[in-house]
């Protein structure tokens, strides 16, 4: 059986890496190749190095001032010879990026069966100014097999009349990645300069609040509100240390550096490589973020999360109570952060909740499913 695993951005690489590993273990029955579009370049390569994955095909499509029109057509056009050369039986795509959508179309044209990992997430706003909902819906329409992180995502697909025999609830592969990574970064012979420099700025006597933010919907007033909240949290809680790896987008950098650069107990740092980020998460007391992946990872490390979004395609976490949705309202962010920092009982209860996103066995389930086809 020939597998082609295609991805292009950092979060996709993190969530597909354990699948590549899982197929490698079963190498006797599978020939598995990896193709990267490199829709993101540097951050993707760091993840591949950490997981010791060498792509077989590198389309190297990252360009300055990328736009969705050229990116979509470049992905389809450059995948054509790859698909013709390797002739995979199964093509694996992940999530909701332009790579996901365009690679599904190319795989469909080639006649391969399309497998969608992290299938069935929906916000139901296809007219949103951002393409993710359409990307994941198109991939879902094309896919032959759907690997869903949760029952909620499976139900979304059943509501779109997808046959239940082609859907498998696996948990999210991000937890498989986290298990591998957490073990590796905490093993004795793992040395990392970035982690050493983090250790140097960490104040062991303080409660660590880790912050990340990148979503386009929060650009503008959203980030100004978020920064004002962080400033207030830092000023009201002397025994708190905020560490914020700031996304490189100028629309994020500008408000963050303007408002927060001189606040004494806030450290603004460059974005972290995946292993350092996992390590820093494991050291934190609470996490404030608008990232999808971080919401899924944090409960497995027992860390409460405040999510700076108004809507979410991850309602399971809100239902399970592992995250609190705070939007970008300054008062709400400050209120919930202070509650977690001050109310020990509330904090402890949140740390003990079960992670609705899985148990780290998702990739094993996917491999077994494909073996039985
Ligand atoms: N992450 C990282 N370095 C950072 C911030 C996040 O490696 O400085 C990782 C994090 O562990 C998670 C993933 O990147 O697995 C989330 O990516 P991002 O927030 O960019 O995207 P989203 O999950 O919102 O699509």
TrEMBL record:
UniProtKB keywords: Isomerase
Under which EC number(s) is this enzyme classified? 5.1.3.14
Pfam families under this entry?
Epimerase_2 (PF02350)
Keyword Isomerase set for record: yes
Principal EC category:
isomerase
The record's annotation in Gene3D superfamilies points to:
Glycogen Phosphorylase B (3.40.50.2000)
Can you provide one Gene Ontology molecular function annotated for this UniProt record?
UDP-N-acetylglucosamine 2-epimerase activity
UDP-N-acetylglucosamine 2-epimerase domain segment(s): 26-371
- Keyword Hydrolase recorded: no
The entry assigns this protein to a family as follows:
Belongs to the UDP-N-acetylglucosamine 2-epimerase family.
Q: State the name under which the record lists this protein.
A: UDP-N-acetylglucosamine 2-epimerase (non-hydrolyzing)
């Amino acid at each position: 059986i020939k597998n082609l695993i295609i991805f292009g951005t950092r979060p996709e690489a993190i969530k597909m890496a354990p699948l590549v590993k899982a197929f490698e273990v079963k190498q006797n029955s599978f020939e598995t190749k990896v193709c990267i579009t490199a829709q993101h370049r540097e951050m993707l390569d760091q993840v591949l190095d950490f997981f010791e994955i060498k792509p077989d095909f590198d389309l190297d499509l990252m360009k300055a001032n990328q736009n969705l029109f050229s990116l979509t057509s470049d992905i389809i056009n450059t995948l054509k010879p790859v698909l013709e050369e390797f002739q995979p039986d199964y093509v694996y795509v992940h999530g909701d990026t332009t790579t996901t959508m365009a690679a599904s179309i190319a795989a469909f044209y080639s006649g391969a069966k399309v497998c969608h990992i992290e299938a069935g997430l929906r916000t139901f706003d296809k007219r949103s100014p951002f393409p993710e909902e359409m990307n994941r819906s198109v991939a879902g329409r094309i896919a032959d097999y759907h690997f869903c992180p949760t029952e909620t995502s499976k139900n979304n697909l059943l509501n779109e009349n997808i046959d239940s025999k082609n859907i498998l609830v696996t948990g999210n592969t991000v937890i498989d990645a986290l298990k591998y990574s957490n073990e590796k970064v905490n093993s004795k012979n793992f040395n990392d300069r970035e982690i050493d420099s983090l250790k140097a700025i960490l104040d062991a006597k303080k409660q660590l609040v880790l912050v990340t933010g990148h979503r386009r919907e929060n650009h503008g007033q959203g980030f100004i509100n978020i920064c004002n909240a962080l400033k207030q949290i830092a000023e009201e809680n002397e025994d708190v240390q905020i560490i914020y790896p700031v996304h490189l987008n100028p629309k994020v950098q500008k408000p963050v550096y303007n408002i927060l650069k001189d606040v004494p107990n806030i450290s603004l740092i460059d974005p972290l490589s995946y292993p350092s980020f996992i390590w820093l998460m494991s050291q934190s007391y609470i996490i404030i973020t608008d990232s999808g992946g971080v919401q899924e990872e944090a409960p497995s490390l027992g860390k409460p999360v405040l999510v700076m979004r108004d809507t979410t395609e991850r309602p399971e976490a809100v239902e399970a109570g592992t995250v609190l949705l705070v939007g970008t309202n300054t008062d709400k962010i400050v209120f919930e952060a202070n509650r977690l920092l001050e109310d020990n009982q509330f904090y402890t209860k949140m740390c003990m909740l079960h992670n609705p996103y899985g148990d780290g066995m998702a990739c094993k389930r996917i491999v077994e499913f494909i073996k039985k086809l």
